[in-house]
Amino acid sequence: MTRDSSPPRRGNARLPASLIVPVEDFCDHLSAIRRSPNTIRGYRADLIDLMEHAHSHGNDALSKIGTSQVRGWLADTRLAGASPATMQRHWSAARVFFRWAANEGLIRSDPTAGLASAKTPKRLPATLGVDQARHILDEAVAQARSDESPQGARDAAILEVLYGGGLRVGELCSLDLDDVDRSRQTVTVTGKGDKQRTVPLGAPALRAIDMWLPRREEWVGPGSGRALFLGARGGRIDQRVVRRVVHAHLRAEPDSPDLGPHGLRHAMATHLLEGGADLRTVQDILGHESLATTQIYTHVSTERLRTAFRQAHPRA
């Protein structure tokens, strides 16, 4: 199965090797411990920005960067209008990088050790109601039956599998035909760090796959391989195409939040918990390393219960 590779190394002609090389070595370290290409790309961009800030203040070596310069970099980022989430990401990139540099003996002390985290306010993710999700999926299946091209059947299967299995968009795009086990009604998913998990699929998702597979043959080409979902040119489907499919179908639903593929994952997890599933089961299905990551969905469910209570109870 073809997997994402780490992003290519890239230098910066404006910076001396003494500042660029440690960043690239750090990114190689992240790749070796199987951090995602998106994470590596984001950390590299943030750290290059930090090195440019340090260099503009006369620093030409990693060991010369102190707490005051890291703090100044974060302050400049905030003054430029960065969101709290961006501030948190910058702080995290610097903290992880300098901790690694200290462990590698590249610096004597970690300049981020005395810096407080840029706290990101917790916000509950917007999500679909059960009836909204059902209607969106039913409409997609209905469109598939009337679509003369394979696209309708493919899009319906994409929506059903994303919601039915709670998959990340990258996980869906990397699915192969052999990953679907009809006898067990499951799909084998390769998640972050190439860790595999087995996820149950309901009857609607399996029916949607069955509708798509005969139409898939119309798009098969030399680059198709064993990919479950194809683009119109016959290659493995791209994440951007999946995002467009999800946005288009959700925008067509009245009063639906404009969510991407991750929104269907949020909705599936929330609906499972509202239906009585335990937190550990949802954690296993989603492939979360930490139970704390899954617990956000309990807050979503509880808040929806409070809202319903306030709206309906005469003594609320």
UniProtKB/TrEMBL annotation:
Role played: Site-specific tyrosine recombinase, which acts by catalyzing the cutting and rejoining of the recombining DNA molecules. The XerC-XerD complex is essential to convert dimers of the bacterial chromosome into monomers to permit their segregation at cell division. It also contributes to the segregational stability of plasmids.
Active site (record annotation): 168, 192, 262, 265, 288, 297
Gene name of the record: xerC
Xref: NCBIfam families: PRK00283.1
GO cellular component: cytoplasm
Domain Tyr recombinase: 123-310
PANTHER family hit by this protein: PHAGE INTEGRASE-RELATED, TYROSINE RECOMBINASE XERC
Subcellular location per the Swiss-Prot or TrEMBL entry: Cytoplasm
KW Cell division (keyword) present: yes
Assembly: Forms a cyclic heterotetrameric complex composed of two molecules of XerC and two molecules of XerD.
Name this polypeptide is given: Tyrosine recombinase XerC
Chain ranges of the Core-binding (CB) domain: 17-102
Family, as annotated: Belongs to the 'phage' integrase family. XerC subfamily.
Molecular function (Gene Ontology), one example: tyrosine-based site-specific recombinase activity
GO biological process, one term: chromosome segregation
Gene3D superfamilies in the record: 1.10.150.130, Intergrase catalytic core
Keywords: Cell cycle, Cell division, Chromosome partition, Cytoplasm, DNA integration, DNA recombination, DNA-binding
